[in-house]
Design brief:
Elements: E1 2-5, H1 9-24, H2 27-46, E2 52-53, E3 62-66, E4 72-79, E5 84-92, H3 97-103
Parallel strand pairs: 1-5
Antiparallel strand pairs: 2-3, 3-4, 4-5
Helix pairs in contact: 1-2
Length: 105
């Protein structure tokens, strides 16, 4: 399945790294979190139809949680008939990922 990303996904990742660095004061902690994001993205790409099925405004989308303490969330919209998927957002912690992801549909 071919993956693409919503244009704001890069901003999501930058904001997560900055938040971790700002909160912890540790560049290494921010890098570790970025590595967790990469690992979770690879897992989503490897198994694009496996995740929590969402409903409502996000019907047809999937979400997967991961990273340390399952504090990362990736939301994507697979289109099986077109053999493609779009990562809508990557969120950290208590961010309103349901509301924000639905705005990116």
């Amino acid at each position: 399945m071919k993956f693409e990303e919503h244009p704001l996904v890069t901003r999501d990742i930058d904001e997560i790294a900055f938040f971790i660095y700002q909160t912890s004061g540790s560049r290494d902690a921010a890098i570790r979190r970025l590595q967790e994001i990469d690992a979770l993205r690879r897992d989503v790409i490897t198994r694009p139809l496996s995740g929590v099925r969402l409903d409502g405004r996000l019907a047809g989308c999937l979400a997967r949680h991961g990273g340390r303490d399952n504090s990362l969330t990736i939301v994507w919209h697979p289109k099986r008939e077109e053999n493609r998927a779009r990562i809508l957002m990557i969120a950290f912690g208590g961010k309103d990922w349901i509301g924000q992801a639905s705005e990116r549909m």
